[in-house]
Amino acid sequence: MQMKTPLLLAMTLAALTTAQAAPGGALAASPSPVASAPKPDEAYEIGREAYDFLFPIVVMELTRQQFTNVVHVGDGFGVHAPMNAFGHAPTFPPAGARMVVRPNFDTLYSVVWLDVAKEPVIVSTGDMGDRYFLLPLMDMWTDVFASPGTRTTGEGAQAFAVTAPGWKGALPAGVSRIESPTSVVWIIGRLQTNGVKDYANVHALQAGIKATPLSQWGKPHQDATGAVDPAVDIRTPPKRQMAQMSAERFYSLGASLMSRYGVHLQDQTILPRLARIGLVPGRAFDWSALPASTREALSHAAADGHAALAASGLDRGEARNGWRYQIAAMGSYGADYHQRAVVAENGLGANLKEDAVYPSTSADADGQALDGAHRYQLHFNKADLPPVRAFWSLTLYDREGFQAANPQNRFAIGDRDDLAYNPDGSLDLLIQADDPGPGPGRNWLPAPKTPFNLSFRAYWPKAEILDGTWRLPPVRRTGP
After folding, report:
1. Where exactly does CATH 2.60.40.1610 map onto the chain?
2. What percent of the chain has pLDDT over 90?
3. Where in the chain is the domain with CATH 2.60.120.600?
């Protein structure tokens, strides 16, 4: 059973509705909200705001359904696993993987979806030695609310219990507590992986990462099992499902999830607006009961809202040398609902900026769109190599944000590769479709012969990156 207690206190809903206690601790609303029905123009505006607000939780739910629609750990790609069981990726994502946009090729993932409504789940790891890792905990609204790992808790063995909101009880000795804002949590663990040759070392560390219900702690570990729901679409990537979703289904599903998982305290500023189109936490959303003019306005709002997100791509953030830096709100968004939706569309599962920064670009130094019909170079002076405490990489994606297939199966290049530096210590990365040959090929990031974009990843960035004093050089076109 999912925990139904909204995070927002009943008093914050008083202006919207007369609330009363419901089974399971949920807040049930009275039949009619106090707010007045909006005119069509305002219904459209509210619908656009609601689309941004609800988009992350809807895409999260579609993603959760696909990841957990298996019986046993490892059914499908390695990260597929039942609820409350870790799935460990044995390799980097293959060329055809389409479940998550903009995956990295620097770490092997260890992924779990936790349901802590019934009882806490204890996540434990072995000692990681000197290997960089992180286990960011993300609520169903895509906010990272804790990030255990090298930067925060160190490399040693760890055990922490993830609890539902308001859970009260005792934990075993040596187990710390992390309270989740929602009853379902997504952990996208990342373990530094230094290329294919390092897989075996990482697999040994992944084997020590476990999720154990509190009632089973101290007993021989057994992975949870699940069941296959044939109604779940396991073939269409969530990103594409969102593009195909009707307005009625989107707002209805969003309302259901908002009631199931609750909202954040800062959301009280938008809830009165949402109530005017029938979106109230704890209340069933009835599309058919809305005036025809409101339904029409919301249909246009959903279509335009998705089009705006799909087009947003790399356009937000501060521009520096053609790269876009989205440092201000990444991984934790407050009330910046549009930014939260943009990241959910273009990079679901983004880390906190303190753990990783992701400058991106789709244009060269002259402002022309990157296209594999041309050749490009990214040049670093010796004094301007990326300042990181962990490592850095450059990853190439197609226009949808997925890895572009190439014969080399090389989707990223970075400081852990066998790069060839220039005599003066500078570095040139080559981005092109054609193989530059044995020597320069060490620094080659293969491109498709079609438009593409780039993401730079700086893991555990130093202050120079976070405060903006260090900037990536521009991507320069070097040939036709």
Report:
1. 70-216
2. 82
3. 318-479
Coil, helix or strand at residue 10: helix
Residue pair 22/13 in contact (Cβ under 8 Å)? The answer is: no
Distance of alpha carbon 181 from alpha carbon 5, whole angstroms: 10
pLDDT of the residue at 42? 97
Give mean pLDDT, residues 397-401.
Answer: 91
Q: Give tens-digit pLDDT for 279-318.
A: 999 999 999 999 999 999 999 999 999 999 998 865 567 7
Cα(226)–Cα(99) distance, integer angstroms: 20
Mean pLDDT score, 59-80: 91
CA 307 to chain centre: 20
| pLDDT of 150 higher than 80 | yes
Report the interhelical angle of 292-312 vs 247-261 (nearest 10°): 80
Compute the distance between CA of residue 179 and CA of residue 380 in angstroms, rounded to an integer: 43
Q: How far apart are the C-alpha atoms of 18 and 16, rounded to whole Å? A: 7
Burial 347-359 (b: 16+ CB within 10 A, else e): bbbbbbbebbbbb
Give the pLDDT of residue 313: 67
Cβ proximity of 128 and 114 under 8 Å: no
Q: How far apart are CA 435 and CA 12, in angstroms?
A: 61
| CB environment 108-147: b (16+ within 10 A), e (fewer) | bbbbbbbbbbebbbbbbbeebeebbbbbbbbbbbbbbbbb
Cα 409 to Cα 411: distance, rounded to the nearest angstrom: 6
**Given pLDDT bands bounded at 50, 70 and 90, which one contains residue 100?**
confident
In order, the DSSP letters of 246-277 are -HHHHHHHHHHHHHHH---GGGGGTHHHHHTT
Q: What is the pLDDT of residues 434-465, one digit of tens each?
A: 999 998 999 999 999 999 999 999 999 999 99
412-429 tens-digit pLDDT: 999 999 999 999 999 999
Nearest to 261 by CA among 179, 185, 331, 336: 185
CA distances 443 to 49, 323, 420, 429, Å, are 44, 20, 7, 5
- What pLDDT is attached to residue 74? 80
**Is 318-479 a CATH 3.40.50.10610 domain?**
no
Indicate the fold that domain 70-216 takes in CATH: Immunoglobulin-like (2.60.40)
Q: Which residue, chain included where needed, has tokens 């850095």?
A: 392
d(CA 386, CA 91): 26
Residues in contact with 276: Cβ distance below 8 Å, sequence separation at least 6, in sequence order = 33, 35, 36, 37, 38, 42, 43, 46
